[in-house]
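Hello Y.,

Per our agreement to keep a running log of every chain we model this quarter, I'm adding this entry. I've kept the format consistent with earlier entries: sequence first, then predicted structure.
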Amino acid sequence: MIALQLVLRRPQLLSSGPARQNHRVPDVRRLGAICIDRLIPPAKARSDPVNLPSPTDSLPDNGRSVIQSLAERNLTPDEAGEAMHELIAQARIVEIDEIENA
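Predicted structure for the entry above:
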């Protein structure tokens, strides 16, 4: 940012006259891109909501519905993987709850 301000305030730095041949001239486009990247960071990947059939009390049935949606091309493999990951987490919660209440 400081280098960009310096170049903007002193345009003679960009001259390529004989006095400046031994000095490196900063690339204003690159400096600008670096500044913009710092001000506006790149967007992170974000998933859109996924429409699945109504969940049931049966985790295996819910898993089957995810696989069926994948087979029917209603879900991408990544979306199906995320949904299955959530079902696995739910199964662990149910398992721990059953152990604690036994």
